[in-house]
Amino acid sequence: MDFKKQLKTIKKALRQHPEEKPKASGGRAAEVYEPVCICRDRNGEFKNLYASEAEALKQAALLRQYNGAILKVYPCPDTPGWHLSSG
Fold first, then answer.
1. CB contact set of 22 (below 8 Å; sequence gap of 6+)
2. Judging by beta carbons within 10 Å of its beta carbon (0-12, 13-18, 19+), is residue 62 exposed, middle or buried?
3. What percent of the chain has pLDDT over 90?
4. Could you give the number of structural domains in the chain?
5. Which residues form the domain of 29?
6. For residues 81 and 11, what is the distance between their CA atoms, to the nearest angstrom?
7. Rounded to an integer, what is the distance from CA 39 to the centroid of its chain?
8. What's the pLDDT tens digit per position in 41-83?
């Protein structure tokens, strides 16, 4: 099986198992977008997916204000939505 077919199979399997969806933790300023993507951070955890660039920028600004974290916003390569990146 070639790489593209394997990736397609993995994406399909992840979408069929709702227990694998990333979960929002309480107290977050921005709501996490409901559609699922398979993007993971460097620790292997699912990345939060924001519905709009504005929501992602709002979250990035809050994290900078409270934690001093400087984050970039970028579109998800897999699913309509936006992620935050430290790099």
1. 32, 36, 45, 46, 47, 48, 49
2. middle
3. 33
4. 1
5. 3-85
6. 16
7. 6
8. 888 888 999 999 999 999 999 999 988 999 999 999 988 999 9
